């Protein structure tokens, strides 16, 4: 079913989340939205952000599956760059208390629709990496799927971890084995963080596993 109650078209998309097919609100024409953003940028319009959030990336599916390996039940979880919210919703379905964030409003409208449809509760808010803060205690877990694809994001990502990750917490990041992910691994090597890497194979494409990057504070 398609819908245009927002200023862009969206639809319900059956998505494998926490082991079951569940409805996820998704943009109906992410390619068209990206082309429109590029056109507006070319015309000199200020403040236009590429809508990469409009697609549910494979990295979110990998992070979803990885959550079976960690105990997040009844724990506080912060998701950054949530996009359509796949990973954060997966955490909520596993019993976590989730705060879902993105740097812009548009994807958060979809997240709220999905949470309501699934009968889940989570805090949903705009949060810009390295700029905004969330009051209260730090989080035992920070999640981010495909948030290392731009070098410009890396300092803000670590600044967010410095401020919002508990001392014994884990930041769990995922990416589809991008070359720039290798560069992120090298970049963080001299930072005060311990880096551990694993891979998760997805059933629909086992030949292209998702990389999971687990960051903890150096002791």
From TrEMBL:
<comment type="similarity">
    <text>Belongs to the methyltransferase superfamily. METTL23 family.</text>
</comment>
<keyword id="KW-0489">Methyltransferase</keyword>
<keyword id="KW-0808">Transferase</keyword>
<dbReference type="Pfam" id="PF13489">
    <property type="entry name" value="Methyltransf_23"/>
</dbReference>
<dbReference type="InterPro" id="IPR029063">
    <property type="entry name" value="SAM-dependent_MTases_sf"/>
</dbReference>
<keyword id="KW-0949">S-adenosyl-L-methionine</keyword>
<dbReference type="GO" id="GO:0032259">
    <property type="term" value="P:methylation"/>
</dbReference>
<dbReference type="GO" id="GO:0008168">
    <property type="term" value="F:methyltransferase activity"/>
</dbReference>
<protein>
    <submittedName>
        <fullName>Putative methyltransferase</fullName>
    </submittedName>
</protein>
<dbReference type="InterPro" id="IPR019410">
    <property type="entry name" value="Methyltransf_16"/>
</dbReference>
């Amino acid at each position: 079913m398609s819908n245009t109650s927002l200023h862009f078209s969206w639809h319900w998309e059956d998505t494998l989340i926490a082991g079951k097919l569940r409805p996820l609100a998704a943009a109906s024409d992410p390619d068209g939205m990206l082309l429109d953003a590029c056109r507006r940028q070319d015309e000199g319009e200020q403040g236009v952000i590429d809508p990469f959030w409009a697609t549910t990336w494979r990295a979110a599916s990998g992070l979803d599956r990885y959550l079976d390996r960690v105990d997040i039940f009844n724990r506080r979880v912060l998701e950054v760059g949530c996009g359509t919210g796949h990973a954060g919703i997966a955490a909520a379905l596993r019993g976590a208390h989730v705060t879902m964030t993105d740097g812009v409003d548009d994807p958060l409208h979809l997240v709220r629709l999905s949470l309501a449809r699934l009968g889940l509760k989570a805090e949903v808010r705009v949060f810009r990496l390295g700029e905004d803060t969330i009051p209260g205690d730090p989080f035992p877990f920070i999640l981010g799927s495909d948030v290392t694809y731009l070098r410009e994001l890396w300092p803000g990502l670590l600044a967010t971890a410095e401020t919002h990750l508990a001392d014994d917490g884990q930041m769990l990041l995922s990416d589809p084995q991008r070359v720039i992910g290798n560069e992120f691994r090298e970049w963080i090597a001299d930072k005060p963080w311990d880096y551990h890497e694993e891979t998760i194979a997805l059933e629909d494409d086992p030949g292209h596993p998702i990389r999971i990057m687990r960051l903890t504070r150096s002791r």
